What we know:
Blueprint: H1 2-14, H2 25-29, H3 51-66, H4 69-81, H5 91-102, H6 105-108, H7 123-140, H8 148-170, H9 177-197
Helix pairs in contact: 3-7, 5-8, 7-8, 7-9, 8-9
Amino acid sequence: AKKQRDTLELLQKEVFAADAYNYPPEIYAFLASTNWRHWGSNSTNRKDFPFHDFILMWQTRTLDGMISSTNLQRIADTEAKTPPDQDVLTNAELLERLSDSIFSELDTVKEGEFTARKPAISSLRRNLQRSMLERLANFAMGRATVPNDVRAIAYAELSSLKDGAAKLLGGGVKLDPYSRAHLEEMRRTIEKVEEASLTLARP
């Protein structure tokens, strides 16, 4: 469990943290688009580097590997096969820690001078949060082959995220247009998942 947690902590810091890609903009400006298709890279019609798409691609590849159906099922089996007095990484801990990292702004954003150019939640973070939200929704609504306990945990995480978004929206922080719209979209999406889940047949 220690090695798993150490690895998870590394990925939280280097891939999913709010400051994981806070490099000087000048560095990103040097990235160039490819004109050729080869392994690991598709050709693009854009002459500039697809900055947002590229970073999100690597983030979601990492995320999907961590919360794949196979991986979540294996973790669930490990939980069941391990004596209660022995420590293991659980699915509940995995999803909670990923959510805490990916949606950290719900707890860390305080009063400040936020504008469309200096948003409370950056564009990279908004993209990642939408991707994680989509995966949690798929789990909660039974659209992915995951253990039933994972469906329940995903539903609980969504409820917590909705409360966090509502608290930030209703607080005293003057948010920028992008962050406010993002949080409102998040809250509406989760409400739709909650409404839809009422019609799902429970196992």
